[in-house]
Write a structure and sequence with these properties.
Low-confidence stretches: none
Distance between the termini: 37 Å
Radius of gyration: 13 Å
Number of helices: 0
Length: 122
C-alpha cells in the first residue's frame, strides 16, 4: 500500500492551494493521517494531523490559522487546504499515516507518500 499525494504546484504569495492524499489500498483500521513538509536544507516539519475516525485535528505553529486539514472517510482521503501561502511554505509536502498514534513525530508514521512540491513565489 502506498499513499498518493497530489496537488502541489507553483503559486504566488497570498494564493491558496489544496493537497490531497489517498492510499492505493486498505490501510490501518484506526489511524491518524498527517502532513509533513521538508524545505531544502531543513529538517522534516510537522504540518497537521487528523484522526480519521474522530476528525480531531492539530496543527503546527507555523501554519495555524492558514491551513486546514480535513478527511473524507468514505474515500479514505485527507486534504490540506493551504491559504495565505508564504514563501517560507515552499517545501515538499508529504502525507503519512500512523496506526492510532497521536503524534507529531515523523518517526511514529510508518506509511509515507512520495511527496508533492509546493513552491511559493513572492
Amino acid at each position: 500500500v502506498q499513499l498518493q499525494a497530489c496537488g502541489g504546484g507553483l503559486v504566488q504569495a497570498g494564493d491558496s492551494l489544496r493537497l490531497s492524499c489517498a492510499p492505493s489500498g486498505p490501510t490501518f483500521g484506526s489511524y491518524v493521517r498527517a502532513w509533513f513538509r521538508q524545505a531544502p536544507g531543513k529538517e522534516r516539519e510537522f504540518v497537521a494531523r487528523v484522526g480519521m475516525n474522530s476528525g480531531r485535528a492539530v496543527y503546527g505553529d507555523s501554519v495555524k490559522g492558514r491551513f486546514t486539514i480535513s478527511r473524507d472517510k468514505a474515500k479514505n482521503a485527507v486534504y490540506l487546504q493551504m491559504n495565505s501561502l508564504k514563501r517560507e511554505d515552499t517545501a515538499v509536502y508529504y502525507c503519512a499515516e500512523g496506526n492510532n498514534i497521536w503524534s507529531g513525530d515523523a518517526r511514529d508514521y510508518p506509511l509515507w507518500g512520495q511527496g508533492t512540491l509546493v513552491t511559493v513565489s513572492s
